[in-house]
């Protein structure tokens, strides 16, 4: 990573820092202040979109650790979100557990489900692993439907809004604050997990599994750890989603969502924490455009146009990015930053 | 006992259709190393094409089949040229995501063109019911059996005796050697996609004749994946054997266990359970080659 002319790294701590200059810190605080004052200037409609984007970012961070950093591609992410969501809903609705107990339990339950379905990953990779995770998605949803007494099956399950210190988070803005705080913590965790020993092991496994094993990385431990961490993020996101809708049902966790989370990772850029955020934000905004344009198109062309527009657009976005920008928006962002770093004396490498 | 045999026979015919769809998948995989998630969507498109030619156009079955095959050939060529060729040399993840994206686009296009209602064309196919003692074989099952056996036989002959068929087998063996012998790899890729589309569309017309056409027909692709995993990724013979095993066992399991479970639907998850078991205990399937890796 190149720096602006005249900026030097003089110690190891400086070299490892994420935020290096005063400008970086200033921009971070400005962004956080802007983010947490959003409820002051935006309507409930926009706050809803932002809340959903925050939840999606948490989920995509998990997928990024699992797929982008550890190379274990997963198309069952929505299934693991369902595990977290239902765990939280059952614990809070049936047993009356408080927020600070249900959210970690949701993460733990989803992580455990990830461990179970990650077991085959020790023997298989590539296409085989994709099939195993697709199977995970369908088996989880089927189990939820079968455990009728516990989950409510197709009828769904009411999940009350969280209560913190006796206050129920009823309004849009209070829930927005909760989600954004957890999103910021999750982003901080995701960025730092991949800088630890475990994170470096993940990258080694992604780049060459055999070489990593020869170097002394225990594949069994680290692959399962990646599955556990990735799915625990999904569990937290699932729990937040379910309590946001105050209702747990399998329609929130369909197979298409799993595919779309992977699509967000591709559009944003695999193996980059910033990429996960770029992908989640840009594609969720695109979804919003579809929900606005869809009904207009339906009225003009055919009643089913709204449903098909979403599918066709999602597919085309992934196709276009795979062909023209396979390294995602994060890569494009780096190029833009490099251009302005030496502006106006930039040069193309 | 009659119930059991009935289940076996319908399962067998279903299994042949699964095998046919799985063969399309195996051919693309062997020739160009692409895992085609969209195989089930070719089947769905095939079902809708069959419906379109048979019901609104009112064509006879042979003409519909020929027209659908023609459409499948064009579809295969377009898919290969426009979406997969730019990705030659890219990572496995990119290629798989491309086929998933293709599947999504197909689903959207099918919804746009044909709507999301159920389309049936049971009565259009000729009605011959074969009676063997107490067993009766419904006409759709019989036609499915005959057409899929014929298609498999034609494919076998194609790979054994035609020049392009031999080139495709050679490409599956070693791509670089084949290119050095003057065979164009891109032609082989294109032909493999065309064959996959054609067998998918034939399978779709057969399945559509049995159970009607709807968007979820594409889920049959997932059953084809289970077949492929069970049979071994690079074995056409394995796909046929595994297709029959899966078709029969799924039918028997659903026939006996569904009344015991709330809501039933075991037939839909059954392939996944088979898949996970195969992946854990024998990841290379019944007839697949065991891969050896070097750094």
Task: Please write out the topology.
The complex is a heterodimer of chains A (349) and B (295).
Chain A (H helix, E strand, L loop, with lengths): L11 H5 L5 H15 L1 H4 L2 H26 L7 H18 L4 H20 L8 H20 L1 H4 L5 E2 L4 E2 L2 E2 L3 H22 L3 H11 L1 H6 L4 H27 L1 E2 L6 H14 L4 H28 L4 H20 L3 H14 L8
Antiparallel strand pairs in A: 1-4, 2-3
Helix pairs in contact in A: 4-9, 4-10, 4-12, 4-13, 4-14, 5-6, 5-7, 5-12, 6-12, 10-12, 13-14, 13-15, 13-16, 14-15, 14-16
Chain B lengths: L1 H31 L6 H16 L6 H24 L7 H23 L15 E3 L2 E3 L1 H23 L1 H11 L1 H6 L4 H27 L8 H12 L4 H22 L8 H16 L14
Antiparallel strand pairs in B: 1-2
Helix pairs in contact in B: 1-5, 1-6, 1-8, 1-9, 1-10, 2-3, 2-4, 2-8, 2-9, 3-8, 5-6, 5-8, 6-8, 9-10, 9-11, 10-11
Can you walk through the features of this model?
The complex is a heterodimer of chains A (349) and B (295). Chain A is 73% helix and 2% strand. Chain A has a domain at 42-271. In chain A, strand 2 (163-164) and strand 3 (167-168) form a beta hairpin. In chain A, the strands form two sheets. In chain A, strands 1-4 form a two-stranded antiparallel sheet. A two-stranded antiparallel ribbon of chain A has the order 2-3. Chain A is built from 16 helices and four strands. Chain B is an all-alpha fold and 295 residues long. Chain B has helices at 2-32, 39-54, 61-84, 92-114, 139-161, 163-173, 175-180, 185-211, 220-231, 236-257, 266-281; strands at residues 130-132, 135-137. Chain B is globular. The termini of chain B are far apart. Chains A and B meet through helix 7, helix 11, helix 13 and helix 15 of A and helix 4, helix 9 and helix 11 of B.
């Amino acid at each position: 990573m190149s720096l602006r002319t005249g900026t030097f790294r003089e110690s190891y701590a400086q070299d490892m820092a994420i935020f290096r200059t005063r400008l970086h810190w200033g921009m971070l605080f400005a962004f956080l202040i802007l983010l947490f004052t959003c409820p002051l200037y935006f309507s409930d409609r926009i706050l809803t979109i932002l809340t959903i984007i925050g939840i999606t970012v948490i989920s995509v961070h998990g997928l990024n650790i699992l797929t982008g950093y550890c190379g274990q591609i997963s198309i069952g992410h929505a299934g693991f979100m369902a595990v977290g969501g239902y765990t939280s809903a059952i614990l809070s609705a049936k047993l009356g557990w408080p927020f600070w107990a249900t959210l970690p339990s949701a993460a733990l339950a989803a992580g455990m489900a990830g461990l179970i379905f990650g077991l085959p990953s020790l023997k298989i990779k590539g296409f085989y692993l994709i099939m195993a995770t697709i199977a995970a998605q369908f088996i989880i949803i089927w189990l939820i439907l079968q455990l009728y007494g516990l989950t409510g099956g197709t009828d769904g399950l009411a999940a009350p809004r969280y209560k913190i210190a006796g206050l129920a988070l009823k309004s849009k803005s209070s829930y927005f604050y909760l989600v954004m705080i957890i999103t910021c913590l999750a982003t901080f965790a995701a960025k730092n997990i991949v800088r630890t020993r475990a994170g470096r092991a993940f990258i080694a496994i992604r780049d060459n599994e055999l070489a990593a094993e020869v170097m002394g990385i225990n594949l069994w431990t680290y692959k399962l750890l990646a599955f556990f961490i990735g799915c625990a993020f999904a569990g937290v996101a699932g729990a937040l989603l379910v309590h946001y809708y105050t209702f747990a049902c399998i329609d929130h966790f369909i197979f298409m969502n799993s595919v779309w989370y992977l699509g967000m990772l591709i559009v944003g850029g695999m193996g980059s924490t910033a990429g996960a955020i770029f992908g989640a934000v840009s594609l969720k905004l695109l979804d919003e455009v579809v929900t606005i344009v869809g009904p207009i198109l339906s009225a003009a062309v055919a009643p089913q146009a709204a449903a098909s527009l979403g599918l066709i657009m999602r597919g085309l976005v992934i196709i276009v990015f795979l062909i023209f920008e396979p390294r995602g928006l994060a890569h494009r962002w780096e190029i833009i930053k490099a251009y302005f770093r030496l502006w106006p004396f930039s040069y193309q490498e | 006992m009659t119930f059991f045999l009935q289940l076996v026979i319908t399962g067998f015919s279903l299994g042949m259709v699964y095998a046919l769809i799985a063969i399309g998948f195996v051919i693309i995989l062997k020739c160009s190393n692409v895992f085609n998630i969209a195989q089930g969507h070719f089947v769905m498109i095939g079902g809708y094409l069959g419906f379109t030619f048979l019901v609104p156009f009112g064509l006879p079955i042979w003409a519909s089949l020929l027209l659908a095959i023609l459409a499948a050939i064009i579809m295969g060529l377009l898919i290969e040229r426009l979406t997969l060729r730019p990705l030659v040399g890219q990572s496995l993840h990119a290629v798989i995501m491309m086929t998933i994206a293709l599947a999504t686009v197909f689903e959207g296009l099918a919804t746009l063109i044909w709507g999301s209602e159920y389309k049936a064309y049971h009565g259009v196919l000729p009605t011959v019911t074969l009676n063997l003692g107490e067993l009766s074989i419904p006409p759709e099952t019989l036609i499915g059996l005959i057409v899929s056996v014929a298609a498999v036989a034609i494919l076998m002959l194609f790979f054994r005796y035609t020049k392009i068929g031999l080139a495709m087998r050679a490409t599956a063996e070693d791509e670089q050697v084949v290119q050095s012998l003057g065979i164009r790899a891109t032609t082989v890729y294109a032909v493999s996609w065309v064959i996959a589309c054609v067998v998918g569309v034939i399978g779709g017309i057969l399945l559509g004749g049995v159970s009607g056409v709807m968007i979820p027909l594409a889920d049959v692709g997932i059953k084809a994946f289970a077949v492929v995993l069970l049979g071994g990724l690079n074995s056409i013979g394995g796909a046929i054997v595994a297709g029959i095993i899966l078709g029969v066992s799924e039918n028997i399991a659903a026939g006996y266990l569904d009344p015991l479970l709330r809501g039933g639907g075991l037939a839909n998850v059954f392939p996944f359970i088979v898949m996970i078991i195969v992946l854990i205990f024998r990841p290379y399937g019944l007839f697949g080659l065991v891969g050896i890796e070097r750094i």
